[in-house]
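Chapter review: from sequence to fold.
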Amino acid sequence: MSVQNSASAQDKTLDPTRWRTLFVVAIAQLMIVLDSSIMNIAIPSAKIDLGITDANQQWIITAYTLAFGSLLLLGGRIGDYMGRKRIFLIGLMGFAAASALGGIASNQELLFASRALQGVFAALLAPAALSIISVTFTVPAERAKAFGVIGAISGGGAAIGLILGGALTEYASWRWCLGVNTPIAIGAAILAIKFVHESKAQGDSTYDIPGVVTATAGLFSLTYGFNEAATKGWSSNTTIGFLIAAVVLLVIFVAIEKRVANPLMPLRVVTERNRGGSYLGSLVVGAGLFSMFLFLGLYLQVILGFSPLKSGFAFLPFTFGIIIFAGIASQLLPKVGPKPLMVPGLIFAGIGLLLLTRITPDTSYLTHVVPSLLIMSSGMALVFIPLTSTSLHAVSNHDTGVASAMLNTSQQVGGSLGTALLNTVAATATTTFAAANSQLGEKVMPFAMTHGFTVAFKFSAALLFAGAVLLYFFINIGKESLVETEGAGIH
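The token string follows.
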């Protein structure tokens, strides 16, 4: 009888609108994830329309990722202090306005500025979204399901972005790749006013200004340095200069965080082994997975001759796999704990990437790409959901926003690092193959480029296998600990 009473008491304390809250947050999360890929397919049309040069085209993507990646930690802290619902709403409305501005841009400067503004508001929105889920769902089984939805969107959203971007560019205009966000964000904001409850950190809410300056400048330098490495090479003076500046600034940032009374990024957030392991794992996964989308997209369009829209649809098996296995992962997480899902998941995803190394200019999409996408997505779904949960494991209410921001930051930095590193690997392998096989004549470049992609896939797989080893040693919470501590930060 007492067990029954405690269960009914718990039911009364649960937020009755929590699933509607999840729906609203899921819309916002999908919009953020879509925006990282939707413009990739629109670039050629935007270039012609606005007269953007080859040298400047990267800014359509880079302006967004730089602002997003460098401001996430600050965005997480602002949400903690000012109220997560308030910042979530400001993020949505700002994102809607920035998207509308980009959609009507009359020149390249306005387009780049609007993309940077989108990144600024996304940096407010993304940590607030995860924090809202963390403080709304206090029952482990329900929280696993909620993170399952967010994980499925994070994993499958990029592929949906490619399809949507291709469809809008082909049948409407590239401008709608930006404009489509405006009605979605406004709709989400209206729903959020009704269904999302306010929460904020208790206690000291003063800002650590030296920490803000060094963290933002350090993360900007790191992301920009990796971007320069991808476009100009690792030996470029700009690349070296920015990466050195990033190391210096981030070392100063850590030194500041050890000394100030109320740090921007309390070291307790990252020094707990499960959370720290999750952020490292997220960085490695971001590096390995981002390159898969990049090189496989190039293979489908440049080598197999797929249209942009057809290429987007070609990634659908990945999205389906993520969605199906995210459901399975969210059911298993409270029963088996995170490690038995994450380690095999990364090994599976790595095997899927290795299977992609069999592609040539003559192989078929159905026989050589689809099986790899299905294996990879099933493995990644088993990683995304527990990783989101362990990254917020036992974090205090005061630090929920900044812990959420760390997960997003590690993914962003990982994506930038993976692109820079694996671009170099692919380019070097392509050049070497072309020089050694000149007897192939006009066929040499398709074969050389495909060889470059397959070498990059091997490196990506190695990154995922390294991630599996990392998580095996770092993650030590079982299902019992997960159940005991899942509500620890919510008081």
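Two observations follow directly from the output. The two ends are 26 Å apart (CA to CA). The CA atoms of residues 146 and 215 lie 30 Å apart.
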